[in-house]
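== Sequence and structure of one protein ==
=== Format: two labelled lines per protein ===
==== Data for this protein ====
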Amino acid sequence: MRVRELHVISNGQSELEHFARVAALIHPYVTAFHLREKTSQALELWKGVMALRTSGVPLSKVIINDRVDVACASGVGGVQLNYQSLEVWAVRNAFANMRIGRSVHDVQEAEQMSYQGADYLIYGHIFPTDSKPGQLARGTKALEEVVKRVRVPVIAIGGIKPENVQQIMVTGAAGIAVLSGITAADNPLQSAKNYRDALDI
């Protein structure tokens, strides 16, 4: 049975050194760490990657959002693209061995990005979340439709807590992505264990 994926995403608000310290504690339970720092410059992202490496986090688990140049130069495991990023096919042609994720928001976009060569998709938000105030959650039925229509793994994101993980997994999703549920928890290690336990049921 394929190991269900747990992705942990930085929130763009805490210092990357703090994220690295948390990652060092929890990485045995985590599949991938995303540096999603929309306001950070290349050098800041590089320093964040180096902080993760120094903390003992394998670079193979690190994913840089959007910045293909930093991902390539730092030797991390992959890059996460969005609608403002380079096209998946362009990154795939230039970096054949890089793991490429793409954030998607509907079935049509998911099919297109899968066709272009994305290795996995992140889809959401599934449940209501404070990070998307006033925006309607897409729900598990829409997630299930995306999973059925593409051949690559789909990672669910948005408002996911340990107690609703199984609602996600019955859709056939490959795993979940979490932001504040772990990094902002009073006990990030215990929180990561709780998510991993919920995934492994």
In short: The chain has a mean pLDDT of 95. The radius of gyration is 16 Å.
